Q: What sequence folds into this?
């Protein structure tokens, strides 16, 4: 990784996760030069992000915020639930909600009143990685569900946290997996690459 960092005119370097168990994840991610850490996974860029000084930001978190902003819903008067508090989605999304003044609750694996929070939420952002965790019978009529969870389904297919068929009959809007948050994430990853390219003298 340190050798690749020295590649002339390199405008971005990412490590595809998850890594094999024998590889030290933190060590590998922090080996990326922060100037080209376009996935924002290293400690330095993470710290800059939460201090409001980042020049690259978490692509999936930005994608989710873009989708929410484009929905036209005033989230300042809605109950939002963020499911999961991971490094790449849950934590940065909750930070961006705070920056926008949007009220929210967080549900983790240890949350006891999960079903109650789901039933009351107007907006649900899920990034847990558990297939069909959210079903139509658990959510409020007319709610908005952003599915950023990914896991492997039958025959190696990619699936999200949402049972799309049952949820789509109840929710006002639900993002599919694949084809929902993912393509917008790729766009923002490439936007970070462009930011790096523009910064190179």
A:
């Amino acid at each position: 990784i340190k050798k690749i960092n020295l590649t002339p005119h390199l405008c971005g370097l990412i490590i595809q996760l998850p890594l094999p168990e024998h590889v030290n994840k933190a060590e590998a991610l922090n080996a990326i030069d922060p100037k080209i850490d376009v996935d924002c996974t290293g400690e330095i860029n993470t710290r800059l992000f939460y201090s409001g000084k980042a020049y690259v930001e978490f692509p999936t978190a930005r994608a989710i915020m873009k989708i929410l902003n484009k929905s036209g819903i005033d989230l300042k008067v809605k109950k939002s639930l963020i499911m999961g508090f991971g490094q790449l989605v849950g934590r940065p999304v909750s930070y961006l909600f705070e920056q926008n003044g949007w009220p929210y609750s967080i549900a983790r694996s240890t949350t006891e009143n999960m079903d109650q929070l789901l039933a009351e939420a107007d907006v649900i952002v899920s990034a847990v990685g558990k297939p069909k965790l959210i079903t139509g019978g658990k959510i409020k009529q007319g709610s908005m569900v952003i599915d950023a969870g990914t896991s492997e389904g039958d025959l190696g297919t990619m699936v999200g946290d949402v049972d799309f068929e049952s949820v789509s009959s109840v929710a006002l809007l639900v993002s599919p997996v694949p084809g929902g948050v993912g393509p917008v994430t790729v766009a923002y990853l490439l936007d970070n690459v462009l930011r790096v390219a523009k910064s190179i003298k």
